[in-house]
Specification:
77 residues; mainly beta; 5-stranded mixed β-sheet; globular
């Protein structure tokens, strides 16, 4: 699936991934290919992205995540 992690200052990540984990306000969430459409708020924590090269972690202070049509868009603070 396609993943983008964007902050107001810069783009932290853009590429393909097999898994994305985010710190949702109601608890951690994970997304795989073909996940149902979803929009939710994030709390401070780490966004985890598993790619063919390995696992990458990006700390965020909060934000919003949108999952739709095999695309995960994280608008982070």
């Amino acid at each position: 699936m396609r993943v983008e992690i964007i902050t107001p200052d810069k783009e932290l990540f853009k590429g393909e991934a097999s898994y994305v984990g985010v710190p949702g306000v109601d608890g951690g969430m994970g997304f795989l290919n073909n996940h149902a459409p979803l929009i939710t708020v994030l709390k401070a924590g780490d966004v985890t992205v598993k790619t063919a090269e390995g696992e990458k972690t990006f700390p965020v202070k909060g934000g919003v995540v949108e999952v739709m049509k095999n695309t995960v868009l994280v608008l982070a603070e």
